[in-house]
Specification:
heterodimer, A: about 325 residues, Rossmann fold, Alpha-Beta Plaits, 2 domains, four-stranded antiparallel beta sheet, about 35% helix, B: alpha/beta, two-stranded antiparallel ribbon, elongated
Chain lengths: ~325, ~450
Amino acid sequence: MSTPAVLIDHVTKRFSGHTAVKDLSFTVPAGGIFGLLGPNGAGKSTTIRMIMDILEPDEGRISLFGSAASSRDLSARVGFLPEERGLYKKMKILEHLAFLGEVKGMRVSDAKSKASKWLDRLGLADWGQKKVEDLSKGMQQKVQFAGALIHDPELVILDEPFSGLDPVNLQVMKDVVVEIARSGRTVLFSTHIMEQAERMCDRIVIIARGEKVVDGTVTDVKAGFGNRNIALTFSSGKEAAERVMADRALTAKVDDYGASAEVSLADGATSQQLLIALVNAGVGLARFEVVEPSLQAIFIAKVGNAGVAPANAEAA
Amino acid sequence: MNKIFAIIRREFIARARTRAFLITTLLLPVFMVVVSVVPALMMRGGDRTTLIGVVDGTTDGFGTSVESGLTAETLSSKPGATKRYDVRRISAAGRVDAVRDSLVALTGLNSSNHRETLDGVLVLADSTLRTGDAEYLGTNTSGLESMAMLEGSLSKAMRQTRLAKSGIDPAVLKDALRSADLKTTKVSGGRATGESGAASFIIGYFMAFVLYISVVIYGQQTMMSVIEEKTSRIMEVLASSVRPFQMLLGKVLGVGSVGLLQMAIWGATVYTVTSQRGRIAGLIGVSPDAMQQMPIPSMSPGLLAVFLAYFILGFLLYGALYAAIGSMCNSTQDAQQYVAVLTPLLMISFFATFAIFKDPTGGIGVPMSIIPFFSQLAMPVRWSLAAVPPGQLVLSLGLGLFALFGVTWVAARIYRTGILMYGKKPSFAEVFRWLLVK
């Protein structure tokens, strides 16, 4: 792989009284979609702000494209959607988009033509001369999204890009993100919704309370966690099935939903053994599926209560 | 550089395109014109030729000399000026009362129904020359100035006739009776300003007022614009692309250029109104002469340059500080506490101009026009009233620029930290600590 798009090297950031990011290291390879996951307050936004040079790390080093320059000096190559969205309310949409391009170093004429292209694409072509305050919230989100991408950045950093979107707009944004990755550029986005990350990301980092918990490609992370869950749906012989599932030699944990159940295998037991036991007991099976663990499950297992613990736990 | 221009342009357009800007920019010139033209229009009524009927009851030719005396009076001292009186003398020796009554009947009539109507009737008798008693019946008897003028003209004619009667050569007489004509010109600092005292005061006061108001208004606008960026959270996008110093500079220059445009429009209006007042007078049918008498503030190109230079200097000084205050706050209410630090400075600089009106070269005026934070009001006012030594102007501008660098440095440091601070407003101690961060 060539130089990573983002390199985070033993970065620590403290705010008065608490440590927001603690000795964090990871790299975002060039190309593809990278997910920065973590519960609320884990330090995702702080990390992103440090990458964007809005905050300076107290310790450690952050480098973009292998360059020693600050990301502000590289901002022509970086697009950024902050977690807190905001636009000038009184400005006209087209001018606003163009302005966002200009502060990234685009020429006025380029920025204007690019801005109208984006408005076309997002279905806002008729709104270019309207003021921002005349737009609905969803439309404003789209404008802001376009503002982060208007200068065709190599690296796009999106902080919680999909929060607060309706399903239609969500799909539009996802398509755009996937298209950027497909064109060989890099997308780094943060989210606390594991489902989104699971479907879109090539690689993920999970952080909790400012520390890295998981790092790797989605496939590797799941493989490393082990395929230890079986989903069952019963057509008959529910009582017999309950007896089999109660056998601690086979199962570690059972979520019984009545007509279906999800079983975690005990250490040393295999899915084959469970299937044989069920068939021998005369259980009618409509479904027997070895389930990949969801990122949600991995997240809960790895982060547990620690990530969700109140922030003052550390101070106490 | 490109980025700073983008911010300046955005700021400029966002402000200059508003209706408020258009209204305030147009309103002041309109106000100016009204203030200078309306009084001239008002005075036009008093400055017309008065038609007087003279009932001449004299037998020794005194009536004729009064007639010629009155006819010689003009509305102003300029050559070719309009006559002040139109005189109809009627010899009425022995039948004074009858003639008087018949003329009074023609006085003060509605001019649309009658071909000619008199404004007043002056009654002269033989005794008039001796006792000085004369009678005047007219529509304009309550006009104190008109009556004083008439009395003066009559007295002059009397003096002339009495002296001529005692055998003095008419040529010597004419020479001796020529009255004084006092032309007043304001001299200040050993130099004639070419303006009347009233006009100097008006222009000085007007400039001080406009400079004070504009620094406060545009300063506040800069501050609110920063607060808006903070509350709308657009700050993060900007902060990730543009250096805080560039943001500060772009913002202050953007708002400042709107102010400068407005000042330039106003300045140009004043300049045009004063340099073209003769033509304007013609347009509205006022004699250029009457217009010239008005204490309209006149603005020389030099004064205009000093005015604009000190507007720029003053606005940048205070604008940077207002922007820094904005960066520390999340609402306009929060900001008031910090603005209270700037207000006394501005107030002192405004009141200092009164000391300058009193004595432009005095012990308060001179230092005030040199010390930064005060000089942006004091120096233009002083310049408008008296000659300023070039050395003092250079010193004042130099110190101003020096202060500007210092203020910008402080403001940029506060701004850098402040723009990303949300939550409670910082104490002054905290702000001081921001200055020391590397």
